[in-house]
Amino acid sequence: MDTHALATASRTDPLGHTTLAGTQRTTDTGPTKIPIVAHIITDDDLEILQGSKLQPLNLKRVIKLLTDPHSMMLYDRHVNALQRICRHYQKGIPMKELVQVFKILNVCADRMDSQILYEQPVVDILKLCALPYLKEKSSDELTYEQIVIESVSQLGYLMRIPSDIIRKQICRTLQAFYNESSIVQDVQHKPSSLSYNRRMVEMSDISETLVKSLALLENNLDIKLQVLSVLQDLSRNSGFLQALFKNNCEQMLRAEAAKRLCLRLMDPDPSGQLLFRSIDIIWNLLEYGDKHIVASQLNNITCISQLRDAFIFQMTQGYSHYDRQLRNDLLVISSLVAESCPDAPFILSEGHLLLALFSFVRANEKQSRPREWSVAQFEEMQLHAMSVLSSLCPLMLEDYMTCQGSTRLLLLLEWCVGPDTFGGHGNSFHGTSGRGNKKAQMRHCLRLMRSVVSTEDEVILQDLSDQGAINQLLGVLSTAFTKSADQYDAELFGTLGVDTLVRHLKTDVKLLNSGLGHHKLLLAAIDCVWCSVVGCYITEDYLLEKEGVYLLIDLLEMSPKNMHNLIVGCLLDLCENPKTVNHVLTWRGQNGSTAAHLFCEMWRNEEAEIGASRDENGAITDVTKPLMGQLQEERGTVSLPSQFPSQAIVDVSENMRAKIYSFFCKIGFTDLPGLTVDDHVTLTIIEKYLDFKIGEVWTEIMKELEMENVRPVTPDAEAMEAISRAIEERAQIVAATQAELLEAQRNQDILDEQEFYAEIRENHRQAEKRESDFAAFTLRVSSISHLKAAKKRQELSIDASRIQPKYRDIDHFHDTTLHTLRTTVFSGKHVKVETPPRVTEGERPELAPYDPGELPPLNRQFVKHLTI
């Protein structure tokens, strides 16, 4: 290299730094130009990239091959070029190549009508589009964002190709791209994330395009179901970036998706997927989209007719849980549409809905005829119908007058205040406080009349007045004033009345036998709690706050037996309040007994009084009569008319076993604290009380049939025999459970006894050992020979306990024993050694004069650690 080349290659400055070529000073005196060196070190330079390197492919040549007039007829070369693209991008398509790839797809799509050879290559390229797009750099997601969005939109535009295979593949590609996470691709480029893919789909117009493509698929059910499946996924996951972009549901609504889907609900579909998927998409549009837009799209008689036909079809033809769920979805969608649509009443009016609802506004019957609603079902339907009429009648006054609504309401009101007895069931929200009376019907009837009168329509007001509504309402008011409701009485009782009752419930039980009338006062207080407090949540909560439940159970524990029935009944009704159960479970008696133990003891007393067949432990002895008492058994079975109760039914009211069973149903049968084995034995009978009582009633029925020489038909006889056998088997199971409990208790008692005797033996053994140890100690300290023998035995015992018996023969053995020591007590591991300080000849200090007042210097103490 010559001098000029060397000067050009490098130059050293005065500080010793080397300047690269092209950076030499312009003049010797001018300033130095410092170059900007950008050190870009890629992963490829460091050789840390994993996977195969994706070489670039010249797609422009492929496009030119497809579009050039001289080569556009070379179909074989076109197919080979497309297959080469599929093989090259089998790991995924880079984002920077998407424009050219979709340009190739569009060229092939335009030629699909004339040449079918492009079909399979297009399908293969669409399969590659299902994979996450590849990025060389992290910034590619932002750089090619608009390109990715337009590419996703192009997938929807390809639905114009009249090929079932391509359309199916487009649907599969969209589902995989939108739902599946990034897979591990053996290539150096990084795949896009699932969240990025979903965001790109949200920003594209693929949802709107797919909805519009349904018009091309009316006669192709398979492809239509595939498209609906894609729309189902897009609408379900809608709102990924709702704050920034229009979501999928809004795009679908722009294409009138609700109307398009609803118009084709009842198209022939053997699989049933068309109705299910369409309803699911409409549901998602209502949930994530604009309800008013959905309602406006469905606000036409054609769509409503389709919803009605679908609902009727599911009502009449559906039999599975899936069909019932779809039926409920149809009903909810119709309700939401009617709620959001201001023109909904025209649908209700043309469908004669008010006439159907007014068919329930009539007097309730005590018994239902075959193949009709039961009494409880009709009552619930009636209350629901009147609740709906309260909202619809003010909007549909003409239909109200056509159905003679005023006459129907006044007749129902007359029945409500009439003398006819009716026991309402009080089911559902609308039947609150209506159990055993007609209050729920009267309340809804008056509410419906109020809603109609509030319209101030002169025709309706005149109609009600002419039919005597004023006189009838005055009669209702006079009845209400003369006889107030029990709940209102309880509310008027108030907290002051509860305070008075609590003070009387604290009466000492010892005063009951004083003859001064304390027992009457206490009975009146308990009865007042039952009548004036129970049933009103306000006073019930205040009674619980004042520990009224604790006082009642205290009285139950201490009071005479003739008061138990009243107290148990009051507690049982009070347990309808869920808060009472915790108070019952936390109560403790005089000896720490619990409420569960107390009620089990009362059950045993009741059975002992009626003479039930039990052994000394309270277990069942006769499985054929597990509940029958001695008096009931002596009376036997007597054939009675149907209006007279039998012995098994009378037994329920003659003792407290039914109330105790109901009480345990409130507090539970498991995990009860403070129960003994006898209580558990009793609890097994209490838990099966209802089953045993049912079996007892069936036994009486069969005996009465035998006494009357009535032979039931074969199915009834087999049913009664099966019931009897089942009850007897259940009694045997209970008896076996009781035997297991008692056997476990006996085994536990034996174990406790053995442990007790073992403890006694151990105490005696320790006492004997202390005596023998003291005798051996006395012998050692009194005789040197015995001491040596004890020491020898100790050393032999220590040697025998060592791992290496020949440890004394090793070269580095250190004996730690003192041979002159005559003790059998083990020495400690620390030895105290006292040594005077050592002073050399040259360092000998002068001796100080002796001063007796000074203390002598302390000797230094060293501690030496010895290992035995």
Automatic annotation (TrEMBL):
Protein name as annotated: Cilia- and flagella-associated protein 69 ARM repeats domain-containing protein
Domain Cilia- and flagella-associated protein 69 ARM repeats, first and last residues per copy: 58-347, 487-701
GO biological process entries: positive regulation of flagellated sperm motility
A Pfam match: CFA69_ARM_rpt
Region of interest (Disordered), residue spans: 1-27
A GO CC annotation given for this chain: non-motile cilium
UniProt organism field: Pomacea canaliculata (Golden apple snail)
SUPFAM superfamilies: ARM repeat (SSF48371)
Gene3D superfamilies hit by this protein: Leucine-rich Repeat Variant
